[in-house]
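Subject: Interface between my chains keeps coming out wrong

I've been trying for a while to get a sensible model of this assembly. When I model each chain on its own everything looks fine, but I need the whole thing in one frame so I can look at the contacts. Pasting all components below, labels as-is. Any help appreciated, I'm running out of ideas.
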Amino acid sequence: MSLKVALVGCGKIADGHVEEIAKMPELARVMAVCDREPLMAEQIAMRYGLPAHYHCFETLLATEKPDVVHITTPPASHLPLAIAAIDAGCHVYVEKPLTLCHADSRTLLDHGARARRRVTVGYTYFFDPPAIAMRQLIAEGAVGDVVHAESFYGYDLSGAYGSAILSDEAHWVHGLPGQLLHNNIDHLLNKTLELVEDERPAVHARGLVRRARRYGDRRDDMLDELRVLIQGERTSAYATFSAHARPIGHFVRVYGTRNTMHVDYLSRSITLETPSRLPSAVGRLLPAFGQAWQHLRAGGANVLRFARSEFHFMAGLNHLIAAFYRSILEDRPAPLSDRDMLRVSALMDEIFRQLAAAKTSG
Amino acid sequence: MAALVTGATGFLGQVLVERLLAAGEHHVRCFTRPGSQRARLEALQTAYPRAQVEVFVGSLGAPDSIRSALRDVGVVHHLAASLRGAPADICLNTVVTSRNLLDAIVASGGQQRVVLVSSFAVYGVADLPRGALVNEETPLEARPEARDLYAQGKLRQEQLFWDYQRRHGFPLVVLRPGVIYGPGGSAFSTRVGLDLAGLFLHLGGDNPLPLSYVENCADALVIAGRSARAVGQVYNVVDDDLPTCATYLSLYRRRVRPVRSVRLPYAATQVLSRAVQTYHRRSRGQLPAIFTPYKTATAWKGNRFDNAKLKALGWTPRVATADGLDRTFTHMRGELAARVPQGRDGSLAPDRGRQLLRRAMTGALPRRWYMVQGPASSAGDAGDAGNAGAVCLTFDDGPHPQHTPALLDVLRERRVPATFFVVGQEAARHPYIVRRMAAEGHAIGDHSYTHGDAAATSARDLVREVDRTHALLAELTGRPSRLHRPPYGKVTAGKLAGLWRSGRAVVLWNVDPKDYARASPEEIRAWFDSHPLRGGDIVLLHDTQPHSAAALAAVIDVTHRRGLVFTTVDRWLG
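Reply #2:
Try treating it as a single job with all components included. I did that and got this:
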């Protein structure tokens, strides 16, 4: 059986969803798209040759009766659209952030559970090839016990998303409680919470606007740098969001009791830093070669994957969507647990509370 | 009634506003987004004090803002569109904005004439035979999904305008320009080829390149906004005497910079496109299908173009293609030269290493060998400098048959001496101008014989060119000169050694107002107002630029008022 999929919200990220779903015809097919702006729904349907497009979500639900709805609209509409989809009997994939706050996320997940419909959120990097490999290596004991983790997520304000946000004062990102951060730091935080297992770790957050003021409106107040210290009972994590550091990085470092692991999402490589067993100056001579060898192997493995056509740009999105569909078709647990999603929501609430408090007092 | 221009800060928009004012428009309302660069529009207000150049800050995404922009408007020139970006952004910024504008026009009664700037991209030419003539009767693209995002956006935009026109009946004129080019525009249309990480894939070959010089295109818009016959019509906008893509590339190489390129014949491009498309499918989209046989046929199969319909409306290309290319390439060459970091101008991209080296050399070497700046306090030509010091105006790239004499007139009137670094082959072409420079007391140095690409010129060749130019200058003026300014300000250790061996003084500059990149004399004046000169400054200007001469009198006056005097480089050398 192949799932009937509909997609609501035809902005930039919708393309990625449609393209990845098209790669799994045995699991699902996109039957229709919807956007409040009819021209936006029309353009994506035209480009991908989709059978139908709508500008009214209720009409879509009633007419197409989809099995799954992907919600790729601005975050403020996630909750009402997801509830409507669940009420129409659909499973729901929601782009991150799941909702605007922890309480809303709780409401949504409870609603899904009551209706026995699955809900997942777009934590795509959680399912990127290096993240999956990292999880396996940690389970095999490659780093020992996790002592501390660092998560870094760089952002390009001059890229397609960044420039769309900065060029438009009315852009929905400016209306989110955490503005730019609110739309991005799921990717930063879910990696740290995977490694800090505490239910409610202590959090200390600081934000900064590093750009020069340019517009004289709320865009100038949009934070573009964030540092978060997350302290659990036995493990801690440090998370950095930066729109200014170059090159734009995306990595996790996991410091363990045995080794330290560097997981790079951009080069899709994992390297392990191990204690040197050799004495004196020689002990400082060889590790660089060991690192070089690991990079060479990682690069070589990537070339082989590329040659086998297994090195797609949106591999994480593809993996997550496929896992979600399989969980529906085979009645297995969803790829992300409610706890995974709710802890990130709670952490974001706390970060934005602290940033708002710092702004008021500052 | 006002003329409304959307996209007024864009490449075509700024020129259109100027042409509307030049054509006698009294009130031009420039619709701009918050944060857009408005300096050029503001300069236009200064240049046309009797007209009203109104900067209207708003968003085409916000219907309210469009409604107020339409108040008392007689003609709407709709230029705003997305040239690149994500598919959703192109749709939002080209198609949705157009629909918002159309809704606002209809809501306001639909009395305005609307001139839409569409594009050649809307034609469906892939299935036409090679060399087929494209005119206004050529069918529109029937397979938009197979085309690039820009074409999809422009096609949908034009369809919307005709749909609304049919339903609501406002006067509509649609212009479809080819490749709009000019100073400040981009160097290569994809019709010529694509840049692949430093290697230029030359795909256009001997296809005609449908150029439209930005001023000529703006003229067509002005006519479309006024002619009664134009209503309800479509016009292609393309100039006469079109070069082939290959000619354009070779001219660019000669005039601007060397380009490493590989020429791919059309048949080979088609084979490549098929391979790319097949790989894209087989690898399930691991790499994007940037080439497909259909897109390739559209862009590089080759067409001929026709502007007869537009000419019948009374339009002629005011700037001939040869002249337009000359202006464009001169500007581009100037832009490239400006990338060499020089002196104090915060807007230049600083190459720190080069700057430090230059500073170290300035400190270590005597001025008679290497000069970037003169002494901070020195008497100028007028005797007492009042301790404020003297500055030196230098003009590169000339002599130019029109602009240099105009500049000399201003200098003579103000009794200001300057230093000219002439290009040998230009001096040979206009010897009387060089003689006049010398007779009026200006210093003359060389700027090589051909102003070739610095990287491609060896030290030996440069010294040979410099010697040749100095021999010519000595013959023309009867005076030997030691002054040399390297093309683009670029020198190497080998070139310096060669130049010093033949006794040349290498003269650079520390102040660069980038006159070649300014759209008007006002902009140059404004630059000098915000960057006051100091004693010892050597100012880089170009006598090939029309605006420099026009701005010069004001620059001289303001400098005099600051207590500075003018001198020449050779006086500083002693």
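Reply #3:
Confirming on my end. Chain A has two domains: 3-121, 126-314+347-356.
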